[in-house]
Amino acid sequence: MKTHFPLAWLLAGAVLAGCKPHAPALEVAPAAAASQPAAPVSELASLRGYLGKYLHEDVSFLEQGVLATRLKALLGPRYPDLLANLRTVGPLSEQDGVLYITGNRPHEGGSEAAAVVIDPRQDALRVWLLSGGQASEFQDPGRSVDWPRDVRVMQENARAPG
């Protein structure tokens, strides 16, 4: 009786070579963020590059660019008043993601002042303009932008008898 031992080993090896060890399945996280459209980024977000800068440092974002265009549309004939009332200003500042700048007309801070508030998340503007001692507000329609604390203090000071 002849045993075909080497042939049996060869067949067993061939069968086992086709079998692969069972590795745990690789779990791939769904690419939910990639499949959802990104929220549009407001052009106003580009103003973040001016944070901490003063207008007199060769920065004219109130007179050129996206903010100037939006302010002209929002204020119409009052835009020159805004510029005049922001001749003496602090730097562009931020509170809770909202950008703002405040200022006044030189030597007329009690009766000629202004604040511009920019909310890039809502793509919205809100402006407070004190001219001749009378306050006016302008805001993009359908938006609600809160006044930052510094602007509220400025408004309260303007209302205070003095």
From TrEMBL:
* Signal peptide segment: 1-25
Would you say which domain of life the source belongs to?
Answer: Bacteria
Q: Which UniProt keywords apply?
A: Signal
PROSITE patterns linked to this entry: PROKAR_LIPOPROTEIN
Q: What is this protein called?
A: Uncharacterized protein
